[in-house]
């Protein structure tokens, strides 16, 4: 027999209150840990996906949309920009690398991104098997995608137009898988990467058909305008204002293989020095039709919007934590008060005040430790289930395992609260007058 | 050996001080203290057990002046040397019969001896219910457990507070006999405090408050 055993027997003898205390405390711990994990996973995922991208240049519109669309591949693009103009910007000596990306098609909901080989460097992506793309119609796929769609090297598929899976607007060109990337836990895991030509070719063929079938409706002036434009396009800065004509232009230029007049969706930029962030974006925004957005800044803005939700749930979790603290306190206090005679008897057995305090403390901490472990388990199992059913993370595994620090933070909080409850509950023991308690019982 | 000298006690918030007659018990001597309700019998018992501090006077149990002990030393001394029997039979509710006895031994820093425990349970006819919780045993069993708890650690003094007042004649005699028998086995002093005149004949030494 020892104090531990007596504490455990005490807990067992009032099992209903013990279980109640554990459940309430476990619930609040689950909430706190869960929120922390989702929040840190969310932020980690966002920041991780930025890679080394300092700036995105795209068509005018919402900067947040541009970042979400071009970096996280969550939203629709703001529009297209002229490749030649983008290239001209990229020649700035402040820029270390500028990677053009072009997209607008998908395969079963996974985006097809036309880009250059430098794109992989942003994510430190390496090939698991196969090779990088060498010519048009070849694609390299991300790890998540390869797993979910069960695609292997040499497999072919046809992309559909737009960014949402559909069976109606399917392109004729077959794309062939030549490489599969290793998992990176970044956005590239769920992308189909190809070169720019693939995207252009797919759309040019479509445009060709489109143009041929409607040739009768097109008048000569448009063709004329295109030729005129062709001659002086190097001096023409307001190129993409002729938006309604671009499809025809693209068609003609493709025949002449003038890459400079192609369009891309956006340009991902990495600077030589962060100092460039001070002036370069403003210059782009003021002096051209292009828009420059700083991903870090836009994402910070996004956190501000979403943090209200996180804050609310966090406060609710703290509230439950306080309630569970009160429950533990009430149970211990009740035990001390209702069992004053038991405690007095233990004193006559030779138990010291310290031993009685230990007994109460063991009971409180046993409840707390069981609740903490239960909470930890609930979070692990619960979040996995929730993410599986709710398909959060946009077809990507976003869960970041809880760090030791995250767990410790909650553990310390719970520890402080339980200690406080115990300290309040043992107060009557210190004031206990054994003689009076034993006499009054008669 | 138990000896008291000029013990007085003052209740909190009361002006009057009550004094108690001196007690002097030699080895193997027992004592019955008789007195009406409210005269301070329990107070005297608690003084003897070291649960209350006297206003003046000395209390010596086997050459230890327990008035001079610090409260933690007093806890230890009480645990080791004093066995208490209460009128309201009581044991720790969350523990079984045997676990109560084991807890009693633990707090008095005495080693568990399974054979001795079984013997004691046998003597007090508690073997059949030794694994039962306190709320699952009968009144008589609880009474006998109370006696077992007061002697399991081989104390030098057994202090019994009204151990028989709620019992019929037959059980009254049985309980007193058990207490005396256990006291003699342990070579302990038995001091019974009661207003129950029936047990007068069982004691050579009596004292009236």
User: How many individual β-strands of chain B?
Assistant: 10
CATH superfamily of chain B: P-loop containing nucleotide triphosphate hydrolases
Overall residue-averaged pLDDT value of chain B: 88
| Percent helix range of chain B | 25-40%
Q: In terms of per-residue confidence, which ranges of chain A show pLDDT below 50 for 5 or more consecutive residues?
A: 213-256
Domain count of chain B: the total is: 1
* Separate helix tally of chain B: 6
Domain module count of chain A: 2
> What's the N-to-C terminus distance of chain A?
29 Å
Provide the structure class of chain B: alpha/beta
Count of discrete alpha- or pi-helical segments spanning 4 or more residues of chain A: 16
Determine Rg of chain A (CA atoms, Å).
32 Å
For the termini of chain B, the CA-CA separation is 21 Å
Report the C-alpha radius of gyration of chain B, rounded. Answer: 17 Å
Main sheet attributes: strand count, strand direction, barrel closure of chain B? 5 strands, antiparallel
Concise overview:
Chain A has 442 residues and is α+β, with helices and mostly antiparallel strands. Helix content of chain A is 57%, strand content 15%.
Top keywords for this entry?
heterodimer; A: 442 residues; alpha+beta; 2 domains; six-stranded mixed beta barrel; two-stranded antiparallel ribbon; 16 helices; 57% helix; B: 209 residues; alpha/beta; Rossmann fold; five-stranded antiparallel beta sheet; 6 helices; globular
């Amino acid at each position: 027999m020892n104090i531990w055993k007596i504490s455990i027997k005490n807990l067992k003898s009032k099992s209903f209150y013990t279980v109640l205390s554990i459940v309430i405390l476990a619930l609040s711990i689950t909430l706190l840990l869960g929120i922390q994990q989702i929040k840190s996973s969310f932020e980690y995922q966002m920041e991780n996906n930025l890679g080394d991208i300092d700036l995105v240049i795209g068509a005018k519109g919402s900067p947040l949309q541009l970042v979400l669309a071009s970096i996280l591949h969550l939203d629709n693009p703001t529009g297209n920009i002229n490749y030649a103009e983008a290239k001209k910007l990229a020649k700035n000596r402040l820029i270390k690398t500028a990677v053009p990306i072009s997209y607008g098609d998908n395969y079963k909901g996974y985006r097809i991104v036309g880009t250059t080989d430098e794109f992989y460097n942003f994510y430190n992506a390496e090939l698991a098997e196969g090779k990088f793309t060498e010519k048009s119609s070849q694609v390299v796929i991300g790890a998540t995608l390869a797993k979910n769609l069960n695609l292997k090297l040499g497999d072919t598929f046809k992309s559909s137009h737009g960014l949402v899976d559909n069976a109606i607007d399917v392109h004729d060109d077959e794309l062939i898988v030549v490489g599969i990337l290793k998992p990176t836990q970044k956005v590239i895991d769920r992308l189909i990467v190809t070169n720019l030509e693939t995207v252009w070719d797919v759309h040019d063929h479509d445009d060709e058909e489109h143009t041929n079938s409607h040739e009768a409706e097109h008048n000569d002036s448009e063709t004329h305008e295109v030729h005129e434009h062709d001659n002086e396009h190097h001096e023409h800065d307001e190129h993409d204002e002729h938006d309604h004509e671009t499809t025809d232009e693209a068609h003609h230029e493709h025949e002449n293989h003038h890459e400079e007049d192609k369009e891309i969706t956006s340009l991902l930029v990495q600077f030589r020095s962060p100092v460039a962030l001070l002036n370069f974006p403003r210059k782009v925004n003021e002096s051209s039709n292009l828009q420059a957005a700083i991903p870090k800044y836009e994402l910070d803005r996004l956190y501000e919007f979403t943090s209200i939700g996180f804050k609310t749930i966090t406060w609710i979790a703290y509230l439950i934590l306080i309630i569970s603290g009160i429950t533990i306190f009430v149970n211990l206090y009740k035990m001390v008060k209702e069992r004053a005679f038991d405690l007095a008897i233990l004193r006559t057995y030779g138990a010291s005040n310290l031993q009685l305090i230990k007994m109460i403390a063991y009971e409180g901490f046993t409840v707390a430790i069981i609740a903490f472990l239960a909470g930890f388990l609930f979070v692990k199992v619960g979040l996995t289930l929730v993410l599986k059913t709710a398909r959060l993370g946009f077809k990507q595994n976003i869960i970041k395992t809880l760090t030791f620090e995250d767990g410790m933070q909650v553990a310390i909080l719970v520890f402080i609260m339980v200690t406080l409850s115990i300290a309040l509950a043992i107060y009557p023991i210190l004031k206990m007058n054994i003689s009076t308690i034993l006499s009054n019982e008669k | 050996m138990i000896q008291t000298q000029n013990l007085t006690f003052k209740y909190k918030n009361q002006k009057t001080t009550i004094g108690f007659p001196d007690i002097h018990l030699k080895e193997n001597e027992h004592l019955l203290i008789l007195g009406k309700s409210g005269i301070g019998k329990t107070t005297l018992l608690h003084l003897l057990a070291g649960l209350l501090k006297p206003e003046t006077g000395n209390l010596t149990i086997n050459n230890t002046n327990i008035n001079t002990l610090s409260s933690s030393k007093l806890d230890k001394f009480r645990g080791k040397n004093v066995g208490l029997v209460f009128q309201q039979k009581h044991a720790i509710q969350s523990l079984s019969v045997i676990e109560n006895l084991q807890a009693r031994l633990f707090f008095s820093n005495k080693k568990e001896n399974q054979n001795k425990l079984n013997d004691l349970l046998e003597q007090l006819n508690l073997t059949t219910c030794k694994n039962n919780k306190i709320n699952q045993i009968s009144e008589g069993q609880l009474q006998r457990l109370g006696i077992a708890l007061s002697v399991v650690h081989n104390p030098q003094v057994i202090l019994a507070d009204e151990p028989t007042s709620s019992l019929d004649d037959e059980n009254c005699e049985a309980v007193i006999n058990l207490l005396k028998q256990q006291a003699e086995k342990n070579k302990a002093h038995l001091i019974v405090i009661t207003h129950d005149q029936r047990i007068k004949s069982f004691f050579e030494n009596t004292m009236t408050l």
